[in-house]
Amino acid sequence: MKKIYFIISAFAVMCSMFTSCNDEWEDELYEQLVSFKAPVGSNGVYDIYIRYQEDGSGQYKVPVIISGSNTNDKNYVVKISVDNDTLAILNSERFASGREDLWFKQLPEQYYSFPSQTCEIKAGQNTNTYTIDFNLKGLNTQENWVLPLTIDRDPSYNINIRNGWYKALLNVKLYNDFSGNYASSNMYVYIDGQESDGAVEDYRECRVVDDRTVFFLAGTTWSEDINRALYKIVTRFEEGVKDDKGVITGPLTLSAGDPANAINFEKSGDCTYRYEVIKHATKPYLERRITTMYLDYKYTDITSDPENPIRFHVKGNMTMERQYNTLIPDEDQAILW
Fold this sequence. Notes:
Elements: H1 2-26, E1 34-36, E2 46-51, E3 57-66, E4 76-82, H2 86-94, E5 104-106, E6 112-113, E7 118-121, E8 127-135, E9 144-151, E10 167-175, E11 180-183, E12 187-191, E13 203-210, E14 213-217, E15 232-237, E16 241-242, E17 248-256, E18 266-267, E19 272-279, E20 286-301, E21 310-325, H3 331-334
Parallel strand pairs: 2-10, 5-9
Antiparallel strand pairs: 1-3, 3-8, 4-7, 4-9, 6-8, 9-10, 11-13, 12-21, 13-14, 14-15, 15-17, 16-17, 17-19, 18-20, 19-20, 20-21
């Protein structure tokens, strides 16, 4: 009899526990918190890619989310503003003292605007996007520009302060068809008058100037050289000719990025480009867009040893491949960065 009583009691306790567990799932397991979806990368900021249009216009929509295990059941009006403090803290912690030239710079107000100061997330939704309009014509792309945003505190919602998720440090990276990282191991940097023992760099970054123009650093100039502005080579891709295979070839117009041309830059041969689009061999939804620049120019290194400047002759080519997922309609999301 005692054994039967024990079994009945145990069964009742188990049923009670099971009922409690079921009820628990009906409640919100995690607090509903407001945050951006803008995770920082290894550089401490969140890279956003904006195609440079001829008029300099652009737009980006940063996601704003409501966390939690259940669907949001109320209307939120999330207040958003520019954060003028966090970027200075990031710079001081990330870069060596005395190298302020490498700091992230806060994007000036004339280059962006907000259609609204709030982002509305309605009941039944857990996410929406906050629109930022850009007007980037004339922006000095040698600098690393960041638009720092923050979610303002308000009694109508709780902010997710974990890992700074209520802040979004948007690192604006402009692109056009010809910008990006080029493999440059086939571009040789000789001491002028010699044709052997040429130095090479594995990669050269080309940054946007306008919709058809980029710039890169001459020769083997270090990308973090304090004098790097003197060694900018501005390169414009002129209109080309398409052959029966769809390959476009055309001339490049090169000029010194420094108006004074202190490095005495000059073209020393034909400079051309080749642009082609081909399908990926094993992934038919991927499109490979390959740009090759053929270069021949000279410049003088005037800063490594100012008393003994060295004249260099650069010859060869460098190539960039950019892959597109043709199944994704938004171009900045379709590119495999």
